[in-house]
Amino acid sequence: MIRDLPPAVTPIALPRRPAVLSRAGWSAFVVALLVVCAVAPLLNLAVPQGSVFHMSDYAVALVGKIMCYAICALAMDLIWGYTGILSLGHGLFFALGGYAMGMYLMRQIGRDGNYKSDLPDFMVFLDWKALPWHWSFSDSFIATLILIVAVPGVVAFVFGYFAFRSRIKGVYFSIITQAMTFAAMLLFFRNETGFGGNNGFTDFKRILEVPIATPSMRMTLFVITGLTLLGFFLFGRWLVASKFGRVLQAIRDAESRVMFSGYNPIGYKLTIWTLSAMMCGVAGALYVPQVGIINPSEMSPANSIEIAIWAAVGGRATLIGPIIGAFIVNGAKSWLTVTAPEFWLYFLGALFIAVTLFLPNGVVGLVKQVKGRLK
User: Fold this and answer.
1) 18 to each of 26, 75, 239, 246, 361, how far by Cα in Å?
2) CB 108 within 8 A of CB 205
């Protein structure tokens, strides 16, 4: 007896991987690149100060600082917008990267401090006789670059490993991340830890033996920050378009189904969590030389909540939205803290409530809605 042959199996056509950026997106990216690398330096260094087109040193420092915040917002979008993990402790990773850079900058002061000592001034004031062990590599710029990403990465990996293996998620995960950054802030406030206590690090003189307080160095830091932000944006676009990124979005939408499909969500969540923390560490390292100070207040839970607000205002799961949100919120903060400082916190709270109730997809989502209605 001849058995019937099984029907031929029709191959399933997998969807093409989307491009990192569309043609319009690449055009906007090139424009942003030109603004960061050519237009801003020209307006600051070449245009006379009396001209209406001059970009002041204050504007350079302000935009540079906001670009550091935008990197944090971008990192938040990768874990919250695309993976569904709301962290209220990313200010810790930002501060750890800042402290790693601050330790190097303190060593660069040398004997130019108030006490003319090889030790940082706060250590001389506290009658310390030698550097603590965790300052061992602080005089090396290469070691500092490694520590900027390694320290936040290791802390995030260890924390995430135990949290994700314990199946902690949702509001419980947000609470313990907030507790983590608050505990770290209290630790760094103590003088005996060797991080400057409540004053932190300040009075930086030079970086790589080049004075920081010069227009050319400030603009160099500005350009490096802008290039880093654009680079992380491209990296984020590539990541979310990959198979890894699609799994992250599946975890966000239905983690149990991902597990039934044969994927282990723990490894994916731990990887993106660690990468996000390392991005914040880089942002903190770029922030410190431009602002000129780092202290434990950068670890306050309020700062971490602000990072989430930037992502929510701009629009989660868009990558460009959190960047826009960081500029909108911090631009408003810069203006309001000067004109009406007592109303800033009320404005921030009202903004978050309004976005939650009326703009769940943020500014980017609103723009898409308007475009859809106009078509």
Assistant:
1) 14, 21, 11, 11, 22
2) yes
